[in-house]
Task: structure prediction
Amino acid sequence: MTNSTGTRITDVRTALVIGGGIAGPVTALALARAGIEATVFERRPEAADGVGAMLSIAPNGLAALAVVGADEAVREVGQPVPGVVMQDGTGRTLADFHGFPGLPESLALRRADLFRALADHAIAGGIDIRYGKRLVNVVEHADGVTAEFADGTTATADILIGADGIRSTVRGLIDPDAPAPGYGGVLSFGGIVDAAASGGLDVPIESGMMYFAFGRTFLGFWSLPDGRVVWFGSLPREESLTFAEVREVPNEEWLARLRELYTGHVPGEALIGRTAPEDLMVVGPMEFMPDVPTWHTGRIVLLGDAVHAPSSSSGQGASLAAESAVELARCLRDRPTAAEAFAAYEALRRPRVEAITGDAQRKNKAKAGKTGDKPSFPTPEQMFAPVHKFHIDWNARA
Ligand SMILES: Cc1cc2nc3c(=O)[nH]c(=O)nc-3n(C[C@H](O)[C@H](O)[C@H](O)COP(=O)(O)OP(=O)(O)OC[C@H]3O[C@@H](n4cnc5c(N)ncnc54)[C@H](O)[C@@H]3O)c2cc1C
Result:
């Protein structure tokens, strides 16, 4: 029954992982380290769908990826963020965390590049990822669980992991009363501007530094290695729209609304004003998962956005998914049965992910103008908060 060195004591030998986004490949890699053979089933026909804009991997996410040896593959497609500058929306710097001692490493990268890098890394590590496999039903039986796919095929294993994102099918199958995603009150957008070619900006931008400009409304921005500037911002909106509905509106119209909102904002007015319609990234409604009552049954468990999507305000969605993947594998390795492992995993993860989601909702309300507060900028203590320093000791018994 040893286990501090990674020898498994579990009776779980095989797993079906539903979803080949971020959590799926990382979970399969972590399970392999725990001696459990996992197959990933992804509904898309290929690794990435090109949806979403840029996202960040925080230091805690990189630490989790390092446990499964995927950190280098992600660094190759990511841009290091050497520091953070807070501004007040008039161009004035409020705080500069440049070269702050002990600044932890984080990366900015395209969501699609992250999907591809993780899938390639998992496949190179021997993980079987099957594309074009949309899960439609799950049957739990005494000695295993069977997944049924839209193409009529099935697969059976000891356990099934629902890593199928914020609109999880698995979540609804294990609890028909599970909550639906909540709406954060804003529609998110991004854009890329060749600022130098369009006459420069009214604020200097140091390459790689991440800028958060608060003021009346919030805008984040940073420059790519080729000098172009990426921005991300949002439009408050009372009623949510689906992603498809947002896409139906021409980019020109969204740009017009964003330009109106960011009038007078430095450098939002200039950046959005110079964004061409074809360079607008439509991310869609900012969504989050309210607290989910049921995380698992006897042989089925949820992981990643399927059970704890904190909304992109937190900058933690991908990082928390990687953390949960490693923690679940550690629990499965160290507990004799799936049911005990799932209970241990929930106990470890629930308090942390619910606290981060709650914090992101407070930021979203400020962005949507519902608190009467301006979006507030973090203090150095918050910047280097325990959320970033979180580190999982793979060799410790779960
Ligand atoms: C549309 C969208 C855009 C986003 N854009 C940003 C952004 O710009 N910035 C940011 O910080 N965060 C963004 N996020 C959040 C971030 O991507 C997530 O926090 C992170 O990807 C969580 O990883 P995950 O693996 O749990 O879920 P996901 O990455 O969503 O992966 C879930 C996977 O499961 C698959 N799947 C779903 N249902 C089934 C099924 N029935 N059968 C088989 N496979 C299935 C999906 O195709 C998907 O590949 C976005 C999320 C979404 C959904």
Notes: Residues 338-367 form the longest helix (30 residues). The domain at 183-287 is CATH 3.30.9.30 (D-Amino Acid Oxidase; Chain A, domain 2). Residues 18-24, 41-44, 51-55, 111, 133-135, 163-166, 169, 283-284, 304-305, 309, 312, 317-318, 321 surround flavin-adenine dinucleotide (CB under 6 Å).
